Amino acid sequence: MIPLLDELSRKTAQTQLGGGLKKIEDQHRKGKLTARERLEYLIDAGSSLLEIGLFAGEGLYAEHGGCPAGGVVVGIGSVSGRQCVIVANDATVKAGAWFPITAKKNLRAQEIAMENRLPIIYLVDSAGVYLPLQDEVFADKEHFGRIFRNNAQMSAMGIVQVAAIMGSCVAGGAYLPIMSDEALIVEGTGSIFLAGPYLVKASIGEDVDAETLGGASTHSEISGVTDNKYPDDKSCLDAIRKIFDKLGEPEKAGFNRAKPALPAQNPQEIYDLLPADRVKPYDMREIIARLVDNSEFDEYKELYGQTILCGYARIDGWAVGIVANQRKVVKAKGRTGAGGTAGPGEMQMGGVIYSDSADKAARFIMNCNQKKIPLVFLQDVTGFMVGSRSEQGGIIKDGAKMVNAMANSVVPKFTVVVGNSYGAGNYAMCGKAYDPRLIVAWPTAQMAVMSGASAAKTLLQIQVASLKAKGETITPEKEQALLQKITSQYNEQLSPYFAASRLWVDAVIDPLDTRIWLSMGIEAANHAPITKPFNVGVIQT
Predict the structure, then answer these.
(1) What is the pLDDT of residue 394?
(2) Does position 243 have pLDDT exceeding 80, yes or no?
(3) Angstrom distance (rounded) from CA 208 to CA 206
(4) Helix spans in 53-160 (H)
(5) What local confidence, expressed as pLDDT, does residue 297 receive?
(6) Name one Pfam family in it (predicted).
(7) How far, in Å, CA of 229 to CA of 186, rounded?
(8) Backbone torsions φ then ψ of 189, nearest 5 degrees
């Protein structure tokens, strides 16, 4: 674990530099704070910021010079005591221009605000769409325009939106702050217009400077587009704090919270409990004991469906229902001749979902919805059990039951990818496609349709068959070289950073930060009362 944590620390420090030290110095010379400095100044002293999508864009757009953190900083934090989402364009990265991943990350920020009914703050400093990639960011449903649609819908939902124009704000991007409830602007550095001076000159032949066209005085004194102007970044951010200081109290969902308590078992022992080899077994109960308050886990159906652990606990005081993959090999006590269920004394592989464990998890998930208890999924899953015995026993039917109950849950769901996250197991254990309020990965996580070894052997068979069909002779040496190449390529895609760069997960985190992510996530979810009845539709029986 130590090398993995060192890698996480190194990647974090590098990514947080954005466009680099020179670009940061350029911002300071202009009298501007950087995006991260703005967030640090804005949030309450001593409070935590959950940064969403730090590694978004990692390894992407190399031919364009890269786009660290997607060119935008997003976080959940507290401003004047009020939890909110904050979105800050990073002008050190291509002047804050919008890459495809930038749009995706902004939409994720708005999704979090909408699902949890959290106020949202936009700190705008962007040159607009990155034109060389405009075809990937402009016209589709989940592209740039969706952001303004969300602006409108959030306003109708009563979700507070406050925007500060702290740099460039150009073209379609000009609508984002002006569709917010309040729009502030910084003098000298902030500007907002549908077309900049060069485009105005090219379009209608008018010579006009940026300040006259769309500066703070123009829009605060003449057009009325912005509400107020401020002399510098800090005074503008102070004004936002004053706005949030006067917000009315939000409604609550009413999730149960007791006095928080630390785990009785030392959380740092997680580092030693997780084997470096992702195939080796371990006891997930020991991990849970180091995540939950007082290390107390009230297990549900402890002796049935043992490859999934279900039970009630508290995390930082919040009541939760935990659904976790057990990675130990377990001995089942099934009925004789019961099709896909285990026979007496049959051994079941850890990390695999069997019919009985899927059945148990479905029932537990329904119980948590009945009791209004948020769900936490701890993933270390290789998939559902395969083979004739399982198929004849109806594993697909039982898996569908679990997916149905989980997908239709109305209580908030949170997912932690501890280790493996393969195939349909990812889906059943509330992968990204199933709307977890937050989904994070530990550095030990691996996400793909199947494990590297299985995928490589399958892909090798396909490639060898194709080459033989073309008349090529495949020697054992050539076959081994092909396998190594395929394995190397596939393993790159298993990395949690590969997932994080594409926003399949919100963050890669140190396991010791799991409690704060879950606690702040449930606190956010508690702002959104549950209004939809729990209904699973047709359950396969």
Answers:
(1) 81
(2) yes
(3) 6
(4) 100-116, 145-157
(5) 98
(6) Carboxyl_trans
(7) 6
(8) -115, -30
DSSP per-residue string spanning 277-327 = STTS---HHHHHHTTSGGG--EESSTTSSTTEEEEEEEETTEEEEEEEE--
**What Å distances lie between residue 295 and 113, 120, 326, 371, CA to CA?**
32, 35, 17, 22
How are the residues of the chain apportioned to helix, strand and coil, as percentages rounded to the nearest 5?
45, 20, 35
**Rounded to an integer, what distance in angstroms lies between the CA atom of residue 45 and that of residue 293?**
26
How many Å from the N-terminal Cα to the C-terminal Cα in the chain?
A: 42
Q: What is the mean pLDDT of residues 446-458?
A: 74
pLDDT at 336: 45
Q: Which spans in 158-275 are helix H?
A: 175-178, 197-204, 210-214, 216-217, 233-245, 270-273
pLDDT band at 338 (very low <50, low <70, confident <90, very high): very low
Single-letter amino acid, residue 205: G
**380 Cβ contact partners less than 8 Å away, ≥ 6 residues apart:** 284, 324, 325, 327, 351, 417, 418, 419, 420, 421
- Region 287-309: mean pLDDT is 97
Which pLDDT band holds residue 487 (cuts at 50, 70, 90)? confident
- In this prediction, residue 423 has a pLDDT band, given cuts at 50, 70 and 90, of confident
Q: Out of 138-142, 284-288, 370-374, which region has the weakest mean confidence (pLDDT)?
A: 138-142
Q: Which one, of 34, 38, 74, 71, lies nearest residue 53 by Cα?
A: 74
Give the distance, in angstroms, between the CA of residue 304 and the centroid of all CA atoms in the same chain. 32
Burial of 171 (0-12, 13-18, 19+ CB in 10 A): middle
Contact 508, 4 (CB under 8 A): no
Does position 131 have pLDDT exceeding 80, yes or no?
A: no
Report yes or no: 500 and 53 within 8 Å, Cβ to Cβ.
yes
Query: pTM score, two decimals?
Result: 0.92
Question: What residue has token string 């005591």?
Answer: 81
Residue 341 has pLDDT above 60, yes or no: no
Q: Give CA angle at 172 (169, 173), nearest 5°.
A: 35
Q: Tell me whether residue 37 is exposed, middle or buried, using C-beta atoms within 10 angstroms of its C-beta: 0 to 12, 13 to 18, 19 or more.
A: middle
Which residues, including other chains, have CB under 8 Å from residue 134's CB and lie 6 or more apart? none
Compute the distance between CA of residue 301 and CA of residue 435 in angstroms, rounded to an integer. Answer: 26
Tell me the residue length of the chain: 541
Nearest alpha-carbon partner for 227 in 178, 288, 284 = 178
* Model confidence at 88: pLDDT above 60: yes
